[in-house]
Amino acid sequence: MAKNSRAAAVRPVVDSSVRRAYFDCRYGQLHVHCALPAGGGFDEATTLICLPGSQASGRYFSALLPMLGRDRSVYAPDLPGGPGESDRPPLAATAAQIATALTDFLDAMRFRRIDVLAVEDASALAAALVSLRPQLIGKIVLAPPGEANRTLAASLGIPAMLMQLGSVGQPLSAEDARRALPELVANLSGV
Fold first, then answer.
1. Using CA of residue 48, residue 114, residue 131, residue 142, what is the dihedral sign?
2. Model's pTM, two decimal places?
């Protein structure tokens, strides 16, 4: 008599597609690049918010979003006052003011927990988010691993990892994204 056994279903690795959306914030509309898992987000890993440096938009992460979105929802906003399609604040905004505008988005989405990836000078923005919503932030990855980010990571009071992510000041290429992905996933998983 043959045993009735079912082979475990093997899910193929499928990159998610990237979409764009607008969300209300205190300065008008916040433009966000989004990658959602193919399964609709059920049983996914912690949501990831990717913060570009002040000289880049959420498009900086275009090569990385489809790969990271395989098992989690990933959002990369165009920061208010920076390049990109988000509405601008009436005056030049500080990191704390931009972080407050981002909390409008985070609150509207009703996230229970998020991880944050911040590149270059967006590290200050990540620190401001921690001070505004400490219960919401799980882990932070800061890139690049310079002395300022080492000091910031030590002061945050939550898991903060440092890593190199492409070339400083340059858009993230597909090759850089593929190379950085294993380390980034390991940092976010706590491995």
1. negative
2. 0.85
